[in-house]
Amino acid sequence: MIEINGAMGKVDYQGVKREASFLMLPGVKAGDYVILHAGFAIKKLSEADAKETLRLIQEMVRVEKGLDG
Amino acid sequence: MRKGLMAEELGKILKRLDGDADLIRGLSAELCARIKEPLTLMEVCGTHTHAISETGIRRALAGKVRLLSGPGCPVCVTSDAEIDRFIQLSQMPDVAVTTFGDMLYVPGTRSSLAEQRDAGADIRIVYSPLDALGMAEKEPRKEFCFLGVGFETTSPTVLATVAEAKRRGIGNFSICAAFKLIPPALRMIAAHPDLAIQGFILPGHVSAVIGSEPYRFLVDEFKRPCVITGFEGTDILQALVMIADQIKDDEPRLEIQYTRVVTKEGNKAALKIMEGMCDVKDSMWRGLGTIPESELKLKEAWKDFDAEHKFSLPPLEHRERFDTNGCRCGDVLLGKIIPPDCPLFAKACTPSNPIGPCMVSSEGACAAYYKYER
Amino acid sequence: MKDKVIGLAHGSGGRKTARLIRELFLAYLGNPILERLEDAAEFPSDRGRIALTTDSHVVYPLFFPGGNIGKLAVCGTLNDLAVKGARPRFMTAGFVLRAGMSMDVLERIVRSMGEELNKAGVQLIAGDTKVIEKGKVDDCYITTTGFGALEHSKTFAPERIEEGDVILVSGNIGNHETAVLLARGDFGFEHKIESDIANVWPLVERLIEAGVDVKAMRDPTRGGLATTLNELASAAGLGMIIKEADVPFSLPVKGTAELLGLDPYYLASEGRLIAIVAKDHAERALEVLKAEPLGKNAKAIGEVRDGPEGLWLETLLGSERPLLVLEGEQLPRIC
């Protein structure tokens, strides 16, 4: 999410930028990560939850390694 | 400054969730260690079907986990009658049909939109319904009709576009609404006597919109383990571990693996748009038959943007059976068979000569199997 | 021929194209040289070894970041010769132009061609121009013939490929097709992706000079990396496996492909070299390629094996899946 102009904004995906509508996502700010679908931002990504998911996965993998060791 | 750092941090996390081979392999090993008996699960959403094949997960788990594809491919479950109606629209003079790319090659009873386009019909592929609205604004003398095919991730985006059309006074824009709802289809599958699905990998982005509670009945009434799942290899494998654990504990739960995107409440703004602009009606799904209250239709107040009203389209006449030419898309969509079980698969039916929509849609199970699982 | 009408899929470089060539063109025009279906054909001559190639360019739009139809016409032709191991020497070009086309546009195209030809040391020695009425055609189509000299006694052909050979690619793939697609403006993306059109002869020349044991070469154009490797594997009668972790894509190209639902393994490049080299020469080959600016991102992406036929991909997970020949069109008019 780069810039916002009313209900439209610009999103950046891996270096490619496109206009997207924020009609379905009021309250989004520049710097936020969003899920894009058909030109609309439909959900904001939660960093806290992403961190937690990664942590859980790493734990699961460690458990597996534990079994081996 | 702080925000920039946070964004960078999240970016790094996402990258690891996306492409870390160690995590993927570790999860796969962990999953295999936790499975004592072969499981049969269903991935509902077409995007999951493709992700599972593309990442090699299906092959890696062969013999341990049987992953059946469900009806989560909106183009695939659209009926012949509906497709014929789209074709009929494209044949009307001064009407430009705008659509997502998939619909183009799906065969109707006699033709396809691609064929019509080759024959001169004005059919345009768009990435977003807003693009179609933009075209309508630029070419006021043509009628623009957008084919509203999709589930709950897509419907609010199309509906929001209709609302925008009204706000901007763009009168030469309408939609042919064909928005289906996932939970009713899941009810039908969970209740189906011929299917023995032990757990569900639930859609990630449909759930971003509708939240988790619409699936509650799968656990309460049908006692099935359910996990709302993301789309990376790590997401899918983590979800499978979660389902395996639920089965082991014999404690079916409704869990969210895709927590960074899906919340219990979903997207309230999107839900409001759907509720405000649409009523629910019964719908004919290819393969699943008629499912009560499983499709959205525009409310009377929006009839000027409803193609059915605008172009006086006759009511849909559905055939009960779709497989008169041997096509078994219906059974594939139910999870009754896997694509290779269809006698036409990779023989008479291929992506360049598709007989049924499952082979031609980018979210179709047959297309995924044809590409990745042969 | 099963199909009754030519469709866009017949021009995609995939299965339908192959069928059209086999069942129609070869049926009437076949001969031992043509039947080899190589990018450039070596033909018998008592004046030294000579290779010939032909190409038509119908890219739309005519101009895109990183190039235009003229630059593409020249480099595309030179590359077909280069991958046969032939030093490009001469070219011809036929232009089909639309009445009403801007003279300025034509001039820009031809100027660009002149620049590429000069850079490559190649001369255009015969040409033709036709003009068609408005409405029947896009602004400009260019057909070329290329003529090159094989100044050595080596043969680069799929028959030479053996089990254990290493598959090298000279850089990020898929940039050209992505740039052209985005230039059509249908998707409204803002980006910095440029087409990768370039003459690859310098890379080939360095490999030959260094004495690297190259078995066969191709440039991954229409149909992309996957189609090209499938062709080589099929002609060699062997299988190939490449690693997902090793195939180089630039992030924006991968991102665009994801956004648009395209498979990046099938996106065309117009300035990249695929070289199948003997295993113990692979390291040297990479050194040679990386020393050239055009090859600075060269990578080893996989190997040839006796195993299951066709092209396979080893996923990050470690399991294998097939990368099949394209069925129909991914996108029309990209080269």
Structure described in brief:
The complex is a heterotrimer of chains A (69), B (374) and C (335). Chain A is of the alpha+beta class. Helix content of chain A is 32%, strand content 35%.
Polypeptide structure, described:
- The complex is a heterotrimer of chains A (about 70), B (about 375) and C (about 325).
- Helix content of chain A is about 30%, strand content about 35%.
- Chain A is an alpha+beta fold and about 70 residues long.
- In chain B, helix 12 (about 235-250) links the parallel strand 8 (about 225-230) and strand 9.
- Chain B is globular.
- Chain C has about 325 residues and is of the alpha+beta class.
- Chain C has helices spanning about 15-30, 30-35, 70-80, 105-120, 175-185, 200-210, 225-235, 250-260, 280-290; strands spanning about 40-45, 50-55, 65, 65-70, 85-100, 125-130, 140-150, 165-170, 190, 215-220, 240-245, 275, 300-305, 310-315, 320-325.
- The two termini of chain C are about 25 Å apart.
- The interface between B and C is medium-sized, with 29 and 23 residues.
- Strand 3 of chain A pairs antiparallel with strand 9 (about 190) of chain C.
Describe the secondary-structure layout.
The complex is a heterotrimer of chains A (69), B (374) and C (335).
Chain A: E1 3-5, E2 8-13, E3 16-21, E4 34-37, E5 40-44, H1 47-68
Antiparallel strand pairs in A: 1-2, 2-3, 4-5
Chain B: H1 2-19, H2 21-34, E1 39-45, H3 46-54, H4 57-60, E2 65-72, H5 80-90, E3 95-99, H6 113-118, E4 123-125, H7 129-138, E5 143-150, H8 155-167, E6 173-180, H9 182-191, E7 199-202, H10 205-210, H11 216-220, E8 226-228, H12 233-249, E9 254-256, H13 268-277, E10 278-285, E11 289-298, H14 307-310, H15 329-334, H16 357-360, H17 365-372
Parallel strand pairs in B: 1-2, 1-7, 3-4, 3-5, 5-6, 7-8, 8-9
Antiparallel strand pairs in B: 6-11, 10-11
Chain C: H1 15-29, H2 32-35, E1 41-43, E2 49-57, E3 63-64, E4 67-68, H3 69-82, E5 87-98, H4 103-120, E6 123-132, E7 140-150, E8 166-169, H5 175-183, E9 189-190, H6 201-209, E10 214-218, H7 224-236, E11 239-243, H8 251-260, E12 274-277, H9 282-291, E13 299-305, E14 310-314, E15 320-323
Parallel strand pairs in C: 5-6, 11-14
Antiparallel strand pairs in C: 1-2, 2-7, 3-4, 5-7, 8-12, 8-13, 10-12, 11-13, 14-15
Helix pairs in contact in C: 3-4
